[in-house]
């Protein structure tokens, strides 16, 4: 009985939340209006970034709540993108790096994954939330703007709503007379938006109520996607 008591205590111990404070501080200092000061990070905060990404590699997320796991993976993706860029400076575009998304591997919660696998094999199937496409920032100007704070379990749902609203009201949708052009994100991940709302147009209509009827049945063109670095 005495031997089993420590095991019972360990089994009932609460799961410790993953600490995102280093990443939160880094974003607050080096991200302004969606632009990332990659050179500043390299010069003064690379050690903190490396420590955070190192903690991501060893994390155990199996006992965390769904929102805590979602916040973890969103932060992990964005932090790895930032580190991958900082490690390769000077860099004009992530597309200049062969295999940036599909070949280079990183450890996340004990698993070796590429950025593409992290997005499409873990985040999308596990959470099935179309809003994640406005939280994952791939280091390019046409990506949704990177936020100045890390995701957290308690605020991730509200943040996803806010980021989706901002993107749909801003750079993601351009109305010019009779023509409506939208980000290619809505083309690349159309299946997610269709699953969420029935169609891309109906998804957009939820976030632009004044134009909801028009958007719901519109035929869209697509905006040019800039892969230039989202740096200062």
Q: What can you see in these coordinates?
A:
This protein is mostly helical and 232 residues long. The chain has helices at residues 4-12, 21-30, 38-44, 46-58, 66-86, 115-127, 156-169, 185-188, 190-197, 200-205, 212-216; strands at 31-32, 35-36, 106-108, 111-113, 173-176, 179-182, 221-222. Strands 5-6-7 form a three-stranded mixed sheet. The protein has a two-stranded antiparallel sheet with strand order 1-2. The protein is globular.
Provide keyphrases for this structure.
mainly alpha; 3-stranded mixed β-sheet; 11 helices
Give the CA-CA distance, first to last residue.
62 Å
Q: Count the DSSP helices.
A: 11
> Structural class from helices and strands?
mainly alpha
Characterize the biggest β-sheet.
Answer: 3 strands, mixed
What is Rg? 19 Å
Kindly report the average pLDDT value.
94
Taken as a percent bin, the fraction of beta residues is 5-15%
* Count of beta strands: 7
The general outline is globular
> What percent of residues adopt helix (DSSP H or I)?
40-55%
**Which spans of ≥5 residues are poorly predicted at pLDDT below 50?**
8-13
Physical arrangement of strands within the biggest beta sheet: 5-6-7
Please provide the ordered H/E string of secondary-structure elements: HHEEHHHEEHHEEHHHHE
């Amino acid at each position: 009985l005495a031997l089993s008591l420590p095991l019972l205590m360990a089994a009932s111990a609460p799961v410790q939340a993953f600490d995102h404070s280093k990443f939160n501080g880094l974003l607050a200092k080096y991200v302004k209006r969606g632009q990332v000061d990659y050179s500043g990070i390299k010069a003064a905060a690379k050690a903190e970034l490396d420590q955070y990404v190192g903690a991501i590699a060893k994390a155990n997320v199996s006992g965390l709540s769904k929102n805590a796991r979602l916040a973890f993976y969103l932060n992990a993706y964005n932090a790895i993108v930032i580190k991958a860029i900082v490690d390769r400076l000077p860099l004009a575009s992530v597309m200049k790096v062969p295999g940036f998304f599909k070949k280079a591997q990183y450890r996340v919660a004990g698993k070796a994954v590429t950025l593409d696998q992290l997005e499409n094999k873990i985040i999308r199937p596990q959470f099935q939330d179309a809003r994640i496409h406005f939280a994952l920032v791939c280091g390019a100007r046409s990506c949704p703007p990177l936020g100045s704070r890390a995701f957290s379990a308690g605020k991730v749902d509200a943040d996803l709503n806010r980021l989706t609203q901002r993107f749909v009201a801003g750079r993601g949708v351009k109305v010019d007379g009779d023509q409506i052009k939208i980000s290619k994100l809505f083309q690349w991940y159309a299946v997610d938006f269709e699953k969420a709302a029935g169609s891309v147009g109906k998804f957009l209509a939820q976030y632009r109520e004044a134009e909801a009827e028009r958007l719901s049945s519109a035929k869209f063109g697509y905006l040019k996607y800039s892969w230039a670095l989202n740096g200062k």
